[in-house]
Write a structure and sequence with these properties.
The complex is a heterodimer of chains A (380) and B (361). Chain A is α/β, with parallel strands linked by helices and 380 residues long. Chain A is 34% helix and 23% strand. In chain B, 80% of the residues lie in helices and 0% in strands. The chains are: A alpha/beta (380), B mainly alpha (361).
Chain lengths: 380, 361
C-alpha cells in the first residue's frame, strides 16, 4: 500500500463543536480511512448531528480543525469540498415538479459549467449513481411521489453523483422499515468496500451499527464516551452506560433487547433449552409474571434471555449435565412455584434431567402447561 | 448468470427510457416557448388594433414598419399611446412574474408573491408621505415624483428586509418580517390618509389600483434599463438557484455560497417588483399565478427554463389583461389588478386542484 492509500481521507483534530459559540462536545479527534465506515451512536440529542454538521460546515466549529484529504477544510473552497465530500442530510426535501433524475443530477453541481448544463458524461454518472442504489426504475418519477425508502436511496444517489471520497450521512435509516434499512446499509457497505468511499454517519440502530461499521464512536451529550471497533464497544457495560439503560437490558453480542423483568415471588418454573424457552420467557414478561428458569447450560441460547428476565435462573456448566446441587435447587424452585411450564425442548445427553424435573412436578401435583396461548396472569 | 443478464438488459432499457424522456421533455419545452412567442405576437397585434380609434391590421404594419405618418391620427394613437402602453405592460408583466418566480424559489413556496416582502406597502407609505408634502409645499404632485417616490419607498423596505436576510437562520422568519413591515407601513399610510384631504391623495388611490394607462416611452426606457439587467443577473444565478431548490442544507454542501446568494436573490426580486410598483402600481396576482402556470406547462422547476418562460408568459399575461382592462367596459377603464386577480386567482385554484387529483392517482 502506498502512503496515499493509508492517509486518512477525513481527520478531525481536537474538534470542538457546538451552537452559537457554546461548546457541546469538546476535543474530538478521529480519522477516517479510505473505504472505512465509521458510525456515530448515542442517545437522542447527544450531539451526533452536531458533529456531522460541523464536518460538513453547516455549522461552524468552535475550535479545532477538520482535514479533508489532509487539507484544512477552512482553506478549501466550496466547489473543491463538494467534489470530495457529499452529505445526506435529514432536511425534508420536497421540491415541486422535479424528477428523481433531475434531483440526483443536482449532485453534478460542482462539476458543471456556469449554467449547470449536464454533459453526456454527467448524465452517465447520474444514471450509474441511480443504478448503484437500485433506483433506475424510478428515475422518471416525481421526487415528491416516492416512498420513504426510495427517497432515502435517491438522496444517497445524489451524494454518490458528486463522486466524493467521503460521504457524511445523518440518520440515513430513520423512518425506514427493516427491509429498507438493510437494503440501504448493504448499498453503503458495497460502496465503501468496492468503491473505496469513506463513510461517516449517525445511526439510531445500534445493532445495525455493529454489523456495518469498522469503527464506532459513542457520542454522549458532552463528550465522546468511547471510540473503537464494534468488538470493543459492544463488550461490557459501554452501551448500558452510553444509553443509561436502567430498566430492561440490551445484549450486545446477540442484539437482544429485553424489557424490564417482572420481579417478586416466583409463580412458575420454566423448563426450557435450545431456544425453546425464549418465547415463554417473553410471554411471561408481557404478563408481568415473575418466574424461574432452568436448568440451562450457560452456553444455551435461552440463557441469554433467561438471565435478564427470570427472577432466578438455574444454570449448569457449558456442555455439561447439571450437578446434584443444581438439580436440588431446581426442585426447590418447583416446590415454590405454582405451575411448571414445559417448553418442549428435545431431550439429549446434557438435559435429560429436565425430563425428570417435569415428572417430579407432576408427581408433586403441580400443573404442567405446554402453551401459554390464551392464559392470563391470574391463571398462572 | 441468467438473472444478471436480465438485470443488465433492464438497466439498458432504463437508459433508453431516460434518453427518450429527455427528448420528449425537450419537445415540450420548445412547444411551450413557441406558443408563448406566437401568442405574444398575436396579443400585441390585437392590442394595437383594439381601442376607440379603429385601425386595420394592414395599417398597423404600415405604420410600425415604415414609420410613415400618412394617417396622422392613427400614427399618433399607435406611437404615442398604444405602443408605449403595450411595451410597458409587457416589460412590467415579465418583471413581475420573474420576480414572483424568484421569490417562490427563495422561500420554496409556490404561493409566495413578489410583494410579500413589503415592497408595495413601503412604496405606498413613501408615496403618501411625499404626496402630502408635495401638495403642502408646491400644491401639486407631478407624475414623475410619484414614480420616484414609490421606487424609493420600495427600496427602503427592501433595505430593511435585506438587513435581516443575513441575520435570520430560518427563512420563514423573513417572510414574517416582510409581512410585519407591510403592516407597519400600512398603519402609517392609513394614519396619513386619515388626516389628508380627499383630493390630495387621489393619486395615491389611483396608484393603488394599478394601471398602465399613462405609459410613456420615457417610462419604458427607464424600466427596460432596470428590468433587463435584472433579468440577466437572474440568468447568471440560475445554476445556484437550481441547487437552492433542494434546500439550503444541500445547496451549501454542493458548494453554493448561501449568504451572498440569498442577498442577491432578494435584491433582484426587490428591484424588479419596485420597478413595477413605481411605474404601474402594486399589480396583484401576476407574480403568483404566472410562474405557477408556467411550471405546470413546462412540468419542471429548472430555473434556466423557468426564468425566460416566466418572463415571456408574464408579458403575455399582462398584455392580455391590460387589453381586457381597457376594452371590456370601454370607454370606462378597469384597474389592471381587477383583471389580473379575476383571471389569475381562478387559474391558480384550478391548477392546484387538477394537480392534486393527478397526484392522488
Amino acid at each position: 500500500m502506498t502512503s496515499e492509500n493509508t492517509a486518512p481521507k477525513l481527520r478531525l483534530d481536537s474538534l470542538t463543536v457546538g451552537y452559537n459559540g457554546k461548546p457541546l462536545i469538546s476535543d474530538i479527534s478521529l480519522s477516517l480511512r479510505k473505504g472505512e465506515i465509521i458510525s456515530l451512536i448515542g442517545p437522542n440529542g447527544a450531539g451526533k448531528s452536531t458533529v456531522l454538521k460541523s464536518i460538513t460546515r453547516h455549522i461552524a466549529a468552535i475550535s479545532g480543525t477538520v482535514y479533508l484529504d489532509e487539507k484544512n477544510m477552512k482553506t478549501i473552497g466550496g466547489k473543491e469540498t463538494a467534489q470530495k465530500l457529499a452529505a445526506v442530510l435529514t432536511d425534508r426535501v420536497k421540491p415541486d415538479l422535479m424528477s428523481c433524475f433531475e434531483f440526483v443530477s443536482a449532485g453534478r453541481y460542482p462539476y458543471t459549467g456556469s449554467f449547470g448544463m449536464l454533459t453526456a458524461h454527467d448524465k452517465e454518472v447520474v444514471l450509474s449513481a441511480l443504478e448503484k442504489v437500485n433506483a433506475l426504475d424510478i428515475a422518471d418519477r416525481d421526487i415528491s411521489q416516492i416512498s420513504d425508502g426510495q427517497r432515502q436511496r435517491v438522496l444517497l444517489a445524489r451524494a454518490i453523483c458528486q463522486e466524493p471520497e467521503v460521504i457524511v450521512l445523518d440518520e440515513p435509516t430513520s423512518f425506514l422499515d427493516i427491509r429498507h434499512k438493510i437494503e440501504l446499509l448493504d448499498i453503503l457497505s458495497d460502496m465503501a468496500k468496492k468503491g473505496g468511499i469513506s463513510v461517516i454517519m449517525s445511526l439510531h440502530e445500534i445493532d445495525l451499527a455493529e454489523r456495518i461499521s469498522d469503527r464506532i464512536v459513542c457520542v454522549k451529550g458532552d463528550r465522546i464516551a468511547a471510540f473503537g471497533t464494534p468488538e470493543e464497544i459492544f463488550s461490557d457495560g459501554t452501551l448500558r452506560e452510553l444509553y443509561e439503560i436502567n430498566s430492561g437490558s440490551f445484549n450486545a453480542l446477540l442484539g437482544n433487547i429485553e424489557l424490564k423483568a417482572p420481579r417478586g415471588e416466583i409463580k412458575c418454573f420454566v423448563i426450557g433449552g435450545g431456544g425453546y424457552g425464549v418465547p415463554f420467557y417473553r410471554a411471561l414478561q408481557k404478563r408481568g409474571v415473575p418466574f424461574a428458569a432452568g436448568i440451562l447450560q450457560k452456553n444455551d441460547l435461552d440463557t441469554a434471555v433467561a438471565l435478564p428476565l427470570a427472577q432466578t435462573a438455574v444454570t449448569a456448566a457449558p456442555y455439561s449435565a447439571p450437578t446434584e446441587d443444581e438439580i436440588a435447587e431446581a426442585k426447590r424452585l418447583i416446590d415454590a412455584a405454582g405451575t411448571v411450564i414445559d417448553c418442549g425442548c428435545p431431550s439429549g445427553e446434557y438435559n435429560r434431567y429436565n425430563a425428570e424435573l417435569i415428572k417430579y412436578a407432576e408427581d408433586n401435583g403441580k400443573t404442567v402447561i405446554r402453551s401459554l396461548y390464551g392464559l392470563s396472569e391470574a391463571e398462572l | 448468470m441468467g438473472p444478471l443478464i436480465g438485470n443488465d438488459r433492464a438497466a439498458a432499457q432504463d437508459v433508453y427510457a431516460a434518453d427518450r424522456r429527455g427528448k420528449r421533455n425537450t419537445a415540450r419545452y420548445i412547444a411551450v416557448f413557441l406558443s408563448f412567442f406566437v401568442l405574444l405576437i398575436a396579443a400585441v397585434v390585437i392590442s394595437i388594433r383594439v381601442g376607440s380609434v379603429d385601425i386595420s391590421v394592414k395599417e398597423i404594419f404600415h405604420i410600425i414598419f415604415t414609420g410613415d405618418p400618412e394617417n396622422k391620427v392613427a400614427y399618433n394613437v399607435i406611437w404615442k399611446i398604444r405602443l408605449p402602453r403595450l411595451a410597458l405592460a409587457a416589460l412590467l408583466g415579465g418583471a413581475l412574474s420573474l420576480s414572483g418566480f424568484l421569490i417562490q424559489t427563495f422561500f420554496r413556496n409556490p404561493i409566495a408573491g413578489p410583494f410579500v416582502l413589503g415592497v408595495s406597502s413601503g412604496a405606498k407609505m413613501f408615496l403618501a408621505v411625499t404626496t402630502i408634502a408635495m401638495n403642502g409645499i408646491f400644491g401639486s404632485m407631478p407624475l414623475s415624483v410619484t414614480v420616484i417616490a414609490s421606487f424609493a419607498g420600495s427600496l427602503l423596505s427592501l433595505l430593511v428586509v435585506l438587513a435581516f436576510t443575513g441575520r435570520v437562520k430560518n427563512m420563514s422568519v423573513l417572510l414574517v418580517i416582510g409581512i410585519m413591515i407591510s403592516y407597519i407601513c400600512s398603519a402609517v399610510t392609513d394614519l396619513l390618509i386619515n388626516f389628508a384631504n380627499e383630493s390630495e391623495i387621489v393619486n395615491l388611490t389611483h396608484w393603488s389600483m394599478g394601471s398602465f394607462s399613462a405609459a410613456t416611452w420615457q417610462d419604458v426606457k427607464i424600466s427596460a434599463f432596470i428590468v433587463f439587467p435584472a433579468l440577466l443577473f437572474a440568468f447568471l444565478l440560475s445554476k445556484p438557484m437550481g441547487a437552492y431548490l433542494l434546500g439550503e442544507g444541500y445547496a451549501h454542501s454542493l458548494g453554493v455560497n448561501v449568504k451572498p446568494f440569498r442577498v442577491l436573490l432578494i435584491l433582484i426580486t426587490g428591484v424588479l417588483s419596485a420597478c413595477v410598483a413605481a411605474f404601474a402600481g402594486p399589480i396583484s396576482f401576476v407574480g403568483i399565478a404566472v410562474p405557477h402556470i408556467v411550471r405546470q406547462l413546462l412540468k419542471t422547476t429548472k430555473p434556466i427554463l423557468m426564468i425566460p418562460a416566466s418572463f415571456l408568459c408574464g408579458a403575455l399575461f399582462c398584455v392580455l389583461c391590460d387589453l381586457a382592462a381597457r376594452s371590456l367596459f370601454s370607454p370606462a377603464e378597469l384597474s389592471i389588478s381587477t383583471v389580473t386577480s379575476a383571471i389569475g386567482a381562478p387559474i391558480v385554484i384550478w391548477l392546484m386542484i387538477s394537480r392534486r387529483r393527478k397526484n392522488d392517482i
